[in-house]
Every structure is written in structure tokens, then in C-alpha cells.
Amino acid sequence: MALITCRDVSLRYENTVAVGHVSFTVSEGERLYIVGENGSGKSTLLLGLLGLMQPFAGEIAYSEDLRRDEIGFLPQQTPVQRDFPAAVREVVLSGCLGRCGMRPFYSAADRKRCQESMRRLGIEALARRSFRELSGGQQQRVLLARALCATTKLLLLDEPATGLDPIVTAELYAAVDELNRRDRVAVVMVSHDIAAAVRGGGQILQLDSHQGAAYYGPAADYPASAAGKKLMGGFRHD
Ligand code: ADP
Ligand code: MG
């Protein structure tokens, strides 16, 4: 079943059309990689899916089963966010803020979700540590746990592996993989790692700055597609 259906969606900032004429669906439990050059509108499209930007043309439709505050989000990181001076537990808990509504405090249920998210990502031992003192890989795990606090259905991840070394990247992908396969959390991941996207299966959406999608279809068919050949160059995928 479709959690989100985008029909001919266009998004713009004041003077810039950032996303133009994009159609795709995010189904329950599926994995969708969004790829494309810098500035092609990947992050903007996630803001659209989150309901933080309204399309100026086209439509984004949500399943009745998916409330807008039930989407977990790991934003593209900036150095300032990495220097956040709070304990890991507080950072993870803040993922529940979306569902707090007018309540100025966390409920017992929020704290339980927080604990469960930390357990699933194997970071319980870090709970009292300061976020800013963690390694990049640990920080991404914490932010993934934070995103998971908001949802059991859909995670949006914007370039989660940026700045991580290959081993830590593989660990992070494995954690995402487990959430997707074992817990059936649908994952929409913005990534520059085309090879990993192809390996990961699922769907690929390649954005082509405000001119619609250069590719949308199964990851397995991507290498042989015109867009795939262009982007992957001589890279051979077996
Ligand atoms: P990507 O994530 O693929 O690198 P973005 O979604 O960040 O691309 O940006 C898409 C386009 O929108 C770019 O041309 C970018 O300059 C522009 N853009 C992004 N954020 C803003 C903003 N806050 N205000 C105006 N233009 C923006
Ligand atoms: Mg971006």
C-alpha cells in the first residue's frame, strides 16, 4: 500500500524552481533512494514529503494510516549541528517532539520509545554521553535513533553517510537495512552512493534539476538505463 503518492509535484523557493514535475510513490516497507547532482532538489523534495513545503503544482497525497508527525527525519548535517551540547538521551528524545503537541514535557511513552530506539541501534551505553564528543558514526546512529522515535513506518534520511569512513558507512547502512527488512520501516534515503543504492535493491529516483526525474524505477534496472549508464560511467555492476 502507498504511504505517500507524489503526482507531478513541483516545489520552489521564491525565485528558484527546485523540483519540477516529479511523480513517485513510497510504499509500506519499501526502500527508495533519491540520487542526483548537488542542487538537483533532493533535500527540497524531502521537505515536501515532510509537509514543510507545499507544492506549487501537483499533489502529495498521504495514506490515512500515516500522520504527518509519524515521519522520522534525519536532516542533512551541518558542522554546527554536530557541535550540539546535549546528552545523547536528550537528542534521541527530541525526536518525540513532533508528537508532543501542546505538551511541554515528554510522556512515559515517549521515554519508552526513546529507550527502544537506542536499544535497536545499539547505543544504550552512550545515553549519558555528550553528543558533541561522539565520533561521526556514533552521532549518525544517535540521529537515526532520534528519527526512529517519531515513527515505526517511514524514515527520511538526507545523505546520512556524509563524512563517514567506509567501515562506519557500512555499519550505518547495515543498521538502516535492519530497520527496513526486519522492522518493515519504509526508508527514503538521499545518497550519492549509487553503487550502494543499486546493491540495496528497492527503487531509485534520480532528480534532474527542476526538469523532472531522469530515472524512476527498480534499482536492479538502473545500471542498464540511459541515466544509469551516464552516471555510473564505466562502473560495472555484477
Ligand atoms: P540537493 O539537496 O539535491 O543538493 P537542494 O534541494 O538543496 O538540492 O536545492 C535545490 C535548489 O534549490 C538549488 O538550486 C538550491 O540552490 C535551491 N535552494 C535550496 N534551499 C534554498 C533556500 N532555502 N532558498 C532558496 N533556494 C534554495
Ligand atoms: Mg541536499
Molecular structure report:
The chain has helices at residues 42-49, 79-82, 88-93, 97-100, 108-120, 136-149, 166-181, 194-199, 226-232, and strands spanning 2-12, 17-27, 31-35, 57-62, 71-74, 154-158, 186-190, 203-207, 213-218. The protein is α/β, with parallel strands linked by helices and 238 residues long. The protein has a domain at 1-66 and 156-163 and 188-238: P-loop containing nucleotide triphosphate hydrolases (Rossmann fold). The protein has a six-stranded mixed β-sheet with strand order 5-6-7-3-8-9, sandwiched between helices. A three-stranded antiparallel β-sheet has the order 2-1-4, with helices on one face. A hairpin with a 4-residue loop joins strand 1 (2-12) and strand 2 (17-27). Helix 5 packs across helix 6 and helix 6 runs parallel beside helix 7. The longest helix has 16 residues, at 166-181. The protein is globular. Bound molecules: adenosine-5'-diphosphate and magnesium ion. Residues 13, 16, 18, 36, 38-44 line the site of adenosine-5'-diphosphate (ADP).
List the topology elements.
Elements: E1 2-12, E2 17-27, E3 31-35, H1 42-49, E4 57-62, E5 71-74, H2 79-82, H3 88-93, H4 97-100, H5 108-120, H6 136-149, E6 154-158, H7 166-181, E7 186-190, H8 194-199, E8 203-207, E9 213-218, H9 226-232
Parallel strand pairs: 3-7, 3-8, 5-6, 6-7
Antiparallel strand pairs: 1-2, 1-4, 8-9
Helix pairs in contact: 5-6, 6-7
CATH class annotation of the domain at 1-66 and 156-163 and 188-238:
Alpha Beta
Helix content: 25-40%
Bound molecules: adenosine-5'-diphosphate, magnesium ion
Query: Alpha-carbon distance between the termini?
Result: 31 Å
List SSEs in N-to-C order.
Answer: EEEHEEHHHHHEHEHEEH
Query: Unreliable runs, pLDDT <50, ≥5 residues?
Result: none
Question: What structural class do you assign from the helix and strand content?
Answer: alpha/beta
In total, the number of strands is 9
Q: Look up the CATH topology of the domain at 1-66 and 156-163 and 188-238.
A: Rossmann fold
Task: Give the rounded overall mean pLDDT.
Answer: 90
Q: Overall 3D geometry? A: globular
**What's the CATH architecture name of the domain at 1-66 and 156-163 and 188-238?**
3-Layer(aba) Sandwich
